[in-house]
Amino acid sequence: MPGAIRLYLDFASPYSYFALRPLARLAEEHGRTLELRPILLWAVFKQQGVVNPLEKPARRRYFLEDVVRSAEFFGLPFRVPEPLQISAHLAGRLYHGWTATRPQDGLRLASEIFEAFFARAENIADPAVLAALPCFAGETPEAIRAMIDGSEGRQHLGEAVDEACAANVIGVPFVTLDGESFFGADRLPQIAWRLQHPRGGA
């Protein structure tokens, strides 16, 4: 059976937003499972001793130019978040807590979180914004808040960060496929090519 496509992402990363749906399509086309691993990139960088690259003015300027262009390229609605950088730990905890018993909802929930933040400029650091996502229709805000604050989501998010460090994740989106690693939404063509031409002719 073909191996899974594993995607490390951060809900505060526009490039993760750009890559999610194209990767889901590639997985479906090639009979692969798409495994989502929401992480906190800042926590990975902290473990690795890496300084936030957007602290450099030149990198920040380029980033702002490139994300707008990239959104247009991928045909996705996009607004530059304000503030530009947040910690998506509440969204990450909620994702891991919710999908622990509902793994079938992973792609839908991830898409809704990204759309709230990058398409509608809603603050995903606000539990009320997360509780209002369509995926949680029928759930009370109190139930969603309990899931955000609960131990299961915290534990799984921490484990995902540790796993990302062990996998030598250097940024997001970061994909592992059959023992190879691919970093960045601009590696989607290479991922598609590799799926068509597996290593070893498998």
Structure in words:
The chain is an alpha+beta fold and 202 residues long. The protein is built from nine helices and four strands. A four-stranded mixed beta sheet has the order 2-1-3-4. The protein is globular, with a radius of gyration of 17 Å. The protein starts with a strand and ends in a 6-residue tail after the last helix.
Shape: globular
Helical content class: 40-55%
Helix and strand content put the structural class at alpha+beta
> What gap, in angstroms, lies between the N and C termini?
11 Å
The averaged pLDDT comes out at 96
Element order, helices and strands? Answer: EHEHHHHHHHEEH
Features:
about 50% helix, about 200 residues, alpha+beta, globular, 4 strands
Quick synopsis:
This protein has about 200 residues and is α+β, with helices and mostly antiparallel strands. It has nine helices and four strands, in the order βαβαααααααββα.
List the helices and strands and how they pair.
Elements: E1 5-9, H1 14-29, E2 34-38, H2 41-48, H3 57-74, H4 89-99, H5 106-119, H6 127-131, H7 141-149, H8 151-166, E3 174-177, E4 180-183, H9 188-196
Parallel strand pairs: 1-2
Antiparallel strand pairs: 1-3, 3-4
